[in-house]
Amino acid sequence: MLIEILLLTFMIVAALAICITKQLLASIIIFTSYSIVMSTLWIMLAAPDLALTEAAVGTGISSLLFFVVLRRINVMEDEHREEKERRKNAG
Questions:
Q1: What is the pTM assigned to this prediction?
Q2: pLDDT interval class at 34 (50, 70, 90)
C-alpha cells in the first residue's frame, strides 16, 4: 500500500514537472520515467495487458518518437542558423 502511494505521488510530481520544465530533453526523460511507473502500477493492479501496452507504447514507441523529433528539430535549427549566417555574409 505504501509503495502504491509513493508511485502515485511520483506520477503527480512527474506530470507537473513535464509541464513546468523548459528543456525538451528533460521533459522527454521525465515522461519516460512516468510511463515506466505507470506500467509498474498496472502490474500491481493485476492488469498485465495494460502494463505491457504501457511499457511498449508509452515507454518504447512514444519516447523513441519524441527523441527522433527532438533530434530533427535541432537539425532544423542548425540548418536555419547556417542559412542566416550565409545570408549575412553574402549581403
A1: 0.79
A2: very high
